[in-house]
């Protein structure tokens, strides 16, 4: 399903001058959408997972629920543009130690294993 751009907003998000373009679009159906560098970064209301901290391949999910979701890529960064906390796991079945990301926040890590699954709480 293609994305229909409704509005565009560019925002600086960190001291390292991370800048992202936000798009408002309809909810994505069943599963992630992956992107290549240069494509839209994240959809408002979604959780966006990055293969490297805020670069490289990305998968995003609109309105994620409480069910366990296995990511299509090992994630070292996430932008959580939802109103829910995300619990992220190094396993593919949402077991073990959880790394939590509050609603409307972002996080990256290189000192821990990549996250392979998540659920919204």
Model description:
Helices cover 0% and strands 49% of the residues. It contains no helices and 12 strands. It has strands at 8-12, 19-23, 33-35, 42-43, 46-52, 55-62, 69-75, 77-80, 86-89, 98-101, 105-108, 115-120. Mean pLDDT is 75; it is low at 1-30.
Mean pLDDT over the full residue set: 75
The end-to-end distance, rounded to whole angstroms, is 27 Å
Written as H for each helix and E for each strand, in order along the chain, the element string is EEEEEEEEEEEE
* Strand portion: over 45%
Alpha-beta classification: mainly beta
Q: Rg from C-alpha positions? A: 13 Å
User: How many DSSP helices?
Assistant: 0
Helix content: under 10%
Task: Describe the largest sheet.
Answer: 5 strands, antiparallel
Spans of at least 5 consecutive residues whose pLDDT stays below 50 are 1-30
Could you say which overall geometry the principal axes of the C-alpha atoms support? globular
Number of E-state strands: 12
Question: Can you list the strand order of the major beta sheet?
Answer: 3-6-5-8-11
Short description:
With 121 residues, this protein is mainly β. The protein has no helices and twelve strands. The chain has strands at 8-12, 19-23, 33-35, 42-43, 46-52, 55-62, 69-75, 77-80, 86-89, 98-101, 105-108, 115-120.
Layout of strands and helices, then pairs:
Blueprint: E1 8-12, E2 19-23, E3 33-35, E4 42-43, E5 46-52, E6 55-62, E7 69-75, E8 77-80, E9 86-89, E10 98-101, E11 105-108, E12 115-120
Parallel strand pairs: 2-4
Antiparallel strand pairs: 1-2, 3-6, 5-6, 5-8, 7-12, 8-11, 9-10, 9-12
